[in-house]
Amino acid sequence: MHHTMNDLNSHLSTQPIVNTIRISAVHFVGKITRKQQRSFRSSSLPGFVVHLTVDGTVQQNCNGISQNLSPGNIVWYNEHDLIRGEITSSPWTFYTVNFESPDLPLIHANQRMAEAPKEILPLFVQLLEEWNHRSDSGLSGRLNIASLLHQIIALTYPSANSVSTSTSNNTPSGWWKIEADYSHALHRPPPKLTELARKYGISVKRINQLSHDATGLPPMQRLKMVRLSYVRGQLFTSNLTVSEIAFQSGYSRVQDLTRDYKAYFGAPPSETRKQTQEKISKELPDSP
């Protein structure tokens, strides 16, 4: 379940960045605790994900960039980021929000983490409270969710001056255009590297360099991760069957999707779907 936020922005905070962006959907708000020290592997969901660590420590790698998370750190994730990490001090507790905004540029991997300002924790606490009571509060609750999220964005999103928005194929940001085009054609078979080079008029060597500069990964590995992250997002947010998701994401056989998905996430897609359904059933209110 998600809430559409279009046409609500005129009601919100007057901070400069807020006036320039729209929030099209909020998919999830939560406070999560991992009680054991262990390794983990995960991917971000559709849109942006923001984490605020409030307890514990984590060492993780996001697109080739090492990050050490401790209380007070806030981290932004772009859509399709894949993360490997280890909880080094437990319990690890963090607030998280997953939302979509068509106006926010993607953030370079080395600009994602920062020390959160002191105002952020109360905003996350209020945001979670509004989210947990969203079914009872109607339009006013949706407005409050949007307002609080806009404030979090305004306080923590990297400065516009530090985010390159160039779409030239000869800059690292050119990779994001390649990736965005790829994301809109996931129903087709994956392209070969030579096909990408021909399409964008640059060399294979240059595509490799762009991908490494922007994501820390080789291009075909990154694009496969994008496909698998899309699948994971659909398992979380859609009612499509695993077979439907497989065909929608360019797999001609469900078995191939299951093999690739399990190789990266350690469990088949059916297990992710089962966990999602169990979580949703726990969140549903008792009243009809």
TrEMBL record:
Residues 271-288 have a biased composition (Basic and acidic residues). InterPro entries: AraC-bd, AraC_XylS_family_regulators, Homeodomain-like_sf, HTH-like, HTH_AraC, HTH_AraC-typ_CS. Coiled coil: none annotated. Residues 265-288 are annotated as: Disordered. Residues 176-275 form the HTH araC/xylS-type domain. SMART domains: HTH_ARAC. It comes from Oceaniferula marina. GO terms for molecular function: DNA-binding transcription factor activity; sequence-specific DNA binding. Keywords: Activator, Cytoplasm, DNA-binding, Transcription, Transcription regulation. This is AraC family transcriptional regulator.
